[in-house]
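Worked problem 6 (solution included).
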Amino acid sequence: MDCRALIVERIRQSGPITVAEYMDLALYAPGLGYYARAAQRSGRAGDFVTSVDVGPMFGRLLAWSIADMLSAMGGPAPGPTSVDLVEVAAGNGRLARDVLDGLELRAPDCYGRVSLTLVDRSDEARRQHTTTLARHAGRLTRSTATMPPRIHGVVFCNELLDAMPVHLVAMTGTGLAEVYVEADGNRLLERLGPLSTPALARYFDALGVALEPGQRAEINLAALAWIRETAACLVHGYLVIIDYGLEAAQLFAPHAPGTLRTIHRHLADARGPDADPSPPWLVDPGSRDLTTHVDLTSVRREAERAGLRTVLVTDQARFLLTAAERSGLLTEVAAPERLRERLALKTLLVPEGMGTTHRVLVFAADAPSDAPGLSFAG
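Solution. The predicted structure is:
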């Protein structure tokens, strides 16, 4: 059975499914979903490029900021002999490896206290963790599909929320409706229906947003649930979220288009030679990435409702540049033989590229807001 067959069978058994359920199957169904079938999907040979694919520079700069956060915590909380470092949606562990390389090089005392947990839903990705982290085997404590119950340290994720399943809604002449996925034989189609949960209407009410007739938008309830879960686990420390997104006022502005996209071989919403007339995001489920922009406003509000304190909201360029300046890396890479590293840094910082499209949100749980490198305005 392939992923399409799984989805069609689910619809035949229970009727049309929400876009959120469709995305969850297409991306994460065990053994069949896009992320479940491979340990790594990004890079030149993959479907898209992330900051991690630029090289180890991203992880090493992130390490400098993480070291600042762990230092600001004043060492381990009373009792534990180590501090937690938790990466969520860790993939095959490449970013965690680069972060540990950076800590080992620039903050060895911090490195020696770190207890690393890698969280990923993909069995295939988790099977790669011990190999990818081989040199840091003494630091890797857990490789798991779920969050640790109590965390004293730093939780971080890069491009996690944009890959979470979303509900797709549309404003009609009679009010807000939800888009469902139905099957006609093996072909997948859209259909409108009533809201699957009142939480969708409450989402816009909380933002004071009213869509225009005919306008569509995505609502990422899974991201808010994840924020609540993580806040409940983070007893003492920081949560760092790096992702692409917009504030709600821009994301849901009148007539703003939806952001649900499929990515395949570095092209958005591409079709094959035998073009399927279905919407692009319904084409080849399980074989293409599905992504949406993150509603940064709602993420921030949910984190604060869950008891976290917003420390920083800025773009990736400023966040990484601050780390590069504080670590002395800017001076080091000026040497002629460091050309490759200079080019990598430029890629991470360039305007209109990853430097400005990606945002960094830092939240604190019973930890200082004035850690070095986190005190500049967002």
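Discussion: Residues 76-80 have pLDDT under 50 and may be disordered.
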